[in-house]
Structures are given as C-alpha cells and as structure tokens.
Structure prediction request, 435 residues.
Amino acid sequence: MKLSLGIPEIVGSAALPRRLAWLTGARLLFMSIALALVGSLYLGGQYETRYYTLRAGLFTFGGGFVMTAVYAAILRRGRNVEKLADAQLVLDQITWTAVVYLTGGAASGATSFYGLSCLVGAALTGLRGAAVAAVSGGICYGALVTALAKRWVLPPPDQPPGMYLPSSEELSFYVTVNLLVLVVVMLLAGTLADRLRWTGGALIAATERAEQAERMAALGRLAAGLAHEIRNPLGSIAGSVQLLRSGPGLDEEDRQLCEIIQRETNRLNDLVTDMVDLSKPRKPDLAVVDAATIAREVVALASNSGRAVSDVELRFSTDGSPALVRADSAQLRQLVWNLVRNAVQASEAGASVWVSVNRQAGSVELAVVDHGVGIDEAQMPRLFDAFFTTRSQGSGVGLAVVKRIADEHGFLIHVKSEAGRGATFRVLMAPAEQV
Prediction:
C-alpha cells in the first residue's frame, strides 16, 4: 500500500455508505406513503374511471418499494457501494418515467421528479451522481416522448388522449424546458455538493490541525519542564557507565550489562530530544546544503550506535549527481536520522537497511528502505501521528518529527509498505536551483 503525504487530501467517499443508508431509508418512507395513497384511492372506489392509472401506479410504487428493500439488504454487505448508488439513481429515473407516463406524458408535472433524483445523486457522490441521474433521466424522458409521438406506446386508456398528443411546437417546448432544467439542476447541485464536501473536509482538516497544535503546545510545556530534569541524570548515568566499562576487573557479563544500560540511556535521550523537537519547532534556517553528504554522515554515525553496530547492516549509495537542496542542515540531519533509526528498529537481526540519495526528474530523492515487519494497511493513515506507534517499545514521536520537518521545508513524503515485507520511505526535495 502507498501513502503520500505533503498536500492535504480530502476524501469524501468514506461517508458514502452512511449517506446511502439515510437516503435508502428516506426512499422507503416515500415509497410507503405513495403506495398507501395510491392503494387507498384504488381500493376506495372514488376514482372508478381511473382504475388503469391507479392500478399501474400501485404496481409502480410497489415495485419501487421492493427494489428499495433489496437495496437496503445489499447495502448491509458494504460492497460496491458506489455502483449501488448509481443503480439506485438509474432505477429511480425509470420509476419516475412510469409516473410521467401515467400523469400526462411530455406535459406531466411529474417530470420534476427527475430533478429530485439529480439532487439525490449530488448528495451521494457530488457532480458524478448528479450527472448519472441527469443523463439517465434525460434518456428515459426522451425515450418516452419519442415512443408516445411515434405511437409505439399508447396513452393509458383511462386518460384523455389529447393530453398525450401535443402539437410539435408544444412538444419541442416541453422537451427543451425539461432537458434544460435537468442540465441546470445537475450542474448547480453537483457543483454545490462537491464544493460543500471539499469545504467540510477542509474544515475538518483545519480543526484537526488546531487540535494538534493545542496538543503540541501542552506537550511543549511538559517537555520543557522534563527535559532538563531528565537529561542531567541521564548524563550522569552515561558518564558513570563509560567509566565503569573502562575499569579493570569486569567480566563479559558485566560488560554486556553496561552496554544495555548505555543503549537504553541513549534511547531515552533520543526520546527526550524528539519530544522537544516536536513540541517546540524551530523555524528552518534555509541554506544550500548537499543532501547526499548529510545522509552519508548520518549513516556513518548510525552505523556506530545502537543495533547498527551488532545485528543490522546500514548501506548508503548515491548516483553521484549534485544533490543540492535548500534546507536547514540540522533539521535535515534530524529527518534522515529519525528515518534511519526507525528503519533499524523495524528490522530483524541480520537484515540490511539501504539509504540512498539520487537525482530524479525535477527533484532530489532520499530513500530509506528496510526489510522488517512492514506496516499494516489499517495503520498507514496514522503513521505520522504523534505518539502513534506500531512497535511495543516505540514512542511514536520520531516519524511525527519527520513529518513536521518535511512540511516546514515543503518536502513530500511517500511511503510504500506491506505487512511483513518491509517499508520504503521516500522524501522528495526540490533542487536548490528550482527554489
């Protein structure tokens, strides 16, 4: 699965099943009312001269009710929801065509139901749904008018024949007005629905950013108070362990215990650093730097610390092309370090992590590839959230720092991963000459 980050993406399809369920319920209610009304008129006997129309209407709305019940049953499966929405719109227009036929043909006032379906389509899938409803409604209405004009279909026997035989001028007027109304309703409803959906998505994104900023502010106050109190004893512990390791008389088991203390001390210091970086971001001091040189230095440093010393191999490569970008050198170094550290932590013993910097078409690409546990598809959307982690010993801060640095520099991050097959993080940076 791929995840691309850098430009906010508003996705409205996730709410489609919920909207479709509501509209299916409303359709069931409408069909029930229409069926009850027509049935009462038919059984009441007040309109004996309209038995054919009432009986046909009864079958039409009864069929619509049954089809809506079928929609509801299929919707519960949650499959092919978008196709189901399209099918509902098309069959609705066929139902309205039957109603138009029974109530006057080309001149029927029931043609307004075609526009209603366009509104329903816009509510479901925006302009696309409105277009499906408009096109299918136009085809159905055109087919009915043509069939009546050519006498392929006769008017209902209990309706005045003259109402179904307008003059050519009247027929042209009805067809033009109805098709024009369909087009206008489609464009207005579809465009407004898409705009509303986009605006709603942007509002949700803005709200999430505000909440994230508030959480980061609280974290900043906490981190500022803890950083000093934690780092002082950490420094004392690290110095004491270094002295202890250099002393004589230690056996192999003691040295291994010292290494564990040193490694965990470094990990805790990294966590404090990440929390401070995440909670108190510093505005980048942009300058022209060589991304390949920075990445090479980070790989060399990482190769002499943590698991990269013992059971994970770090490899670096570059194509030799200029990799000059405008960035804050320290923050770019932090970005690379966090990605490399994340890849090493995700890798199993004996695995390799590849780091490369290459010049692509119009960009400089930093790639960090591991062959570790990978990332589950369900976890991908939250991958860069602060304090979200897929590992039992992870803090969920390192990748959040990566995302913040990338956003402030205008870098794009692409992630490709499958559970159990490792992960590839690519950072695309604009060359210095293009900035």
